[in-house]
Amino acid sequence: MMAGAGRLSFTNITALAPMVRVGTLPMRLLALEYGADVVYCEELIDIKMAQCHRVVNEVLDVVDFVAPDDRVMFRTCEREKDRVVFQMGTADPDRALIVARLVEKDVAAIDVNMGCPKEYSTKGGMGAALLSDPDKIEAILKKLVTGVSIPVTCKIRILPSLEETVSLVRRIEKTGVTAVAIHGRLKEERPRHPLHCDYIQAVARAVSIPVIANGGSLDLVKTNADIEEFRKATGASSVMLARAAMWNASVFCNTGPLPLERVMEDYLKYAFQYNNHVFNTKYCLCQMLRDKVESPLGKQLQAAQTNAEISEAYGLQEFYQQTQDQLRAKRDVLQSFTQPDQLVMDGDVSTLAVKFQRREYPAHITPKMFLLEWSRKEKLQKPLYEMAQRSQDRAFQSTVTIGEKKYRSSRWEKSKKFAEQAAAVVCLRVLGVPEGRIGEEDSGLVCKRKREVKINGTTEEEGCHKRHVADGQQETDDSEDHHKPETPARTTAEFMRSFSGVCWTSCDAAVVGFLHLKASQFIRDVLMKLHVVVQTAFVFPVFH
Question: Where would you find the membrane-spanning parts of this chain (predicted)?
Fold first, then answer.
C-alpha cells in the first residue's frame, strides 16, 4: 500500500503488529504471503541498535544489523523492504534519530513504541512510560519526522480518560507523524480485560491522520471476516493484529484460514531459508501450538536443539537439507571470490579477522582439538589460552600460545569458548594445519591414536571420542583438558569436589559411580571400606 512518491500508506491496511520474539523475519514474510499489507518488526531498543553496524549478507540475500558481540539484532530483505515498519523502543530523541538513520534505507517506515507496559521497556522510560511525559513524546517524534525521509508513526495505549487520550493524540498529530496505532486498553490492563473500542472511535473522529486499531485478537477478531467488523466497530482507518496472527498467520488470508499444520510448515520454510535462530523458531512454533504444546509433536519440538531436529519433527528433512546444500554452495562460491584473510602482526601476536562459526564444523570436532593433537604430534607443550574481556559489550578475545608464538583473532566473540576456538583457528591457518571444517580431507589428527593401555576398561581412543562429543555441545567445557595432568589418578580433594552438590542415598549407586571414575587405587579402597557405613542409611555429604 504505497502513497505518493513511493511512501508507505497506512490507510485501509491490515498489519502484523510488533511482537517481541515473534515479529522476526520468517513471521513477517509469512504474514505478507498470507495477505498482510504491512508488517512491523519486534520492538528493538535504541541503545542496542545504536551500536550495530549494517552488513549485507550475500549468502542469505538479507541485510543484517549486527551488534558488537556479533548478534544479529535486526534482519530484513528486499521482499519486505517496501512494507516493513521498524519499531524502536526509545526515550531519547537524539539516540532515536541515530537508529532511524541507520535503518531508513532498508525499511518503509519508523515506529516508536509508546504503549508497551512491560517492565523491560518502561524501566528505561520507554514504552508506556512515555504516556506520562507528552513533552518527551513530542520531542522524539519531531526529531524523527524532520530527520528521516520515510514515514514516522507511533503506537500508544489509551489514557485513563477519553479527553486525555484525544488530547494526547491531537498533540502527536501536530508533530507530523503519518499515522498512530492505538491499543484500546490502559497500560495497567491485560488481554483479559475488555477492549475500549469507544476510545479508539473517539480518537479516529478527532484527528485527520490514519488511526490503526489494535487489541481485538482475543474477543473480536478470530477470522479474516472479523477484521472488517473490528475496523467498523472502532471507526479506525486500519487494523493491526498481534495474537490472532501469532496463533495462525493465515488470519490475513481473505480466502479463509489454513490448517495449522500447513501454516507451521510454511513458517518453517522461511525459518530455514533465512537461517533463523533455532530457539526463536521453537518459540514461535510453540505459540502456534498453544494448548497442543504437550502433544507428541509439541514434546518433540521442545526437545529439538537444532533446526535439523525441528525439520525431523515436521517431516521437512528433505527441504531442510536442500536448503542447507544451496546455502553452502552459495557460500563456497562467494568465498572463492573473496580475498583470503590478511595476516597482521599486533606486536608479537599473529592476528587474522576470524569468527568461529560452529556450523562449519562437525558436531564432535573443534579447531582446539586439532591444535591440541597437532601440538602432541610435534612434541610441543599444550596450547595455552589467555582471555581478555571488552567492557562495553562483555565480548571476549583469546590469545593462544604454542611453540613460543602467539596467535589471536582480531574479532571479538560472545563467549569464552568461542574466543578460544577462534584463536585456535587463527593458529591453525597461519601454520597451514587442517582445522576440521566440514569438507576437509581427513588429516588423521583427531581420534586416530590407538594405545594398548586401557583405563578402567576404556581405551584412550574411546576416551578421546567421548571428550570430542562433549566438546561439540556449546554449553560444555571444551578445554581439551589442557590444564589437567595426563595421569588418570586424581587427588583426594579433586575427587571429593567432583561430587559437589550430589547426594547419594544408595550404597550400590555410590560405589558404582565412584568406581567408574578415574580414581586412584587408594580412593577405591577407601570407598569399599565406606560401603558398610553407607548401607546404614548415611548420606554422603556435599563438598564445596
Answer: none
- Could you give phi then psi for residue 387, rounded to 5 degrees? -110, 140
Side by side, which strands form the sheet with 405-409? 344-346, 349-352, 405-409, 396-402, 384-389
C-alpha dihedral (59, 353, 419, 461), degrees to nearest 10: 80
Q: Are 179 and 212 in contact (CB under 8 A)?
A: yes
Read off the amino acid at residue 523.
I
The answer to whether the Cα torsion of 376, 379, 380, 382 is positive or negative is: positive
- Helical residues (DSSP H) of 62-133, grouped into ranges: 93-103, 119-122
Shared domain for 185 and 225, answered yes or no, is yes
Question: pLDDT digits over 118-132, tens only?
Answer: 988 898 999 999 999
CA 288 to CA 175: how far, in whole Å? Answer: 38
Is the pLDDT assigned to residue 110 strictly greater than 90?
yes
Report how far residue 520's alpha carbon sits from residue 498's, in angstroms, rounded to the nearest whole number: 14
Q: How many CA atoms lie within 13 A of 281 on its CB side?
A: 28
To the nearest whole percent, how much of the chain has pLDDT over 70? Answer: 80
Q: Are residues 280 and 153 in the same domain?
A: no
Q: Which among 276, 303, 338 is the end of a domain?
A: 338
Q: What is the largest CA-CA distance in the chain?
A: 88
Q: Please write down the HEC assignment for all residues of 428-452.
A: HHHHCCCCCCCCCCCCCCCCCCCCC
Structural domain includes residue 440: no
Pairing of strands 344-346, 44-45: unpaired
Task: Please name the amino acid found at residue 236.
Answer: A
Q: Rounded to the nearest 10 degrees, how much is the dihedral formed by the CA atoms of 287, 290, 293, 297?
A: -80
Q: What torsion, rounded to 10 degrees, do the Cα atoms 482, 485, 490, 495 define?
A: -20
Give residue 492's pLDDT.
42
Q: Give the pLDDT confidence of 495-527 residue by residue, as tens digits.
A: 444 433 333 333 343 433 443 444 445 555 554
Q: Which domain holds residue 365?
A: 344-431
